[in-house]
Design brief:
With 160 residues, the chain is of the alpha+beta class. The protein is 18% helix and 26% strand. It has a three-stranded antiparallel sheet, with no helix packed on it. It has a three-stranded antiparallel sheet with strand order 4-6-5. A two-stranded antiparallel sheet has the order 1-2. Strand 8 (103-105) and strand 9 (110-113) form a beta hairpin.
Length: 160
């Protein structure tokens, strides 16, 4: 069990992987589904925590899987600091990217809100710090020159 499980329990009354004041909603035809705040989620709040329903898949196990399973995992997993595929067991796997994300991963298997997320606002991550193995293009964001997530984004954009 992750070190933050007891902390999460004390903050929100029970263990949740994704913050309990969120829900899955359709965002747009280009983006699809996303995770949206149903109440204010203040800056500094634990927005997600790795839990026993989340699955870790090693690269050798991934390579032995059926191609359709690998396509699914490529879409819905992030890569942990060991290079394993991590699949969230709840709707956290639908947290979309943003180059101005509302959440940020920590070294402690949890994510923190890096700014307030208001009612109806989508919770987002910058996928560049989630160890992508290959570059991919993103839906352009107003006022942002970045249009592609790259494996070295963490090195290039950590100050932002």
């Amino acid at each position: 069990m992750p070190v933050f499980s007891n902390i999460a329990t004390s903050f929100i009354g029970q263990i949740h992987m994704i913050h309990p004041d969120t829900e899955l909603r359709f965002i747009s035809p280009e983006i699809g589904l996303g995770v949206v705040a149903t109440k204010l989620i203040p800056k500094g709040t634990i927005a997600w925590i790795f839990d026993s329903l989340d699955q870790i898949i090693s690269p050798p196990c991934f390579e032995r899987m059926d191609p359709l399973q690998r396509v699914f995992l490529d879409k819905y997993c992030y890569r942990d600091h060991h290079g394993n595929y991590a699949l969230c067991g709840d709707h956290a796997r639908f947290v979309n990217y943003s180059f101005r994300s509302s959440c940020m991963s920590t070294a402690y298997d949890c994510e923190l809100a890096v700014r307030d997320s208001f009612l109806g606002e989508e919770l987002t991550d910058d996928y560049g710090y989630l160890n992508p193995s290959e570059p991919f293009y993103c839906v352009p964001e107003p006022g942002c020159a970045r249009t592609q997530v790259l494996p070295d984004d963490l090195l290039n954009y950590h100050a932002e």
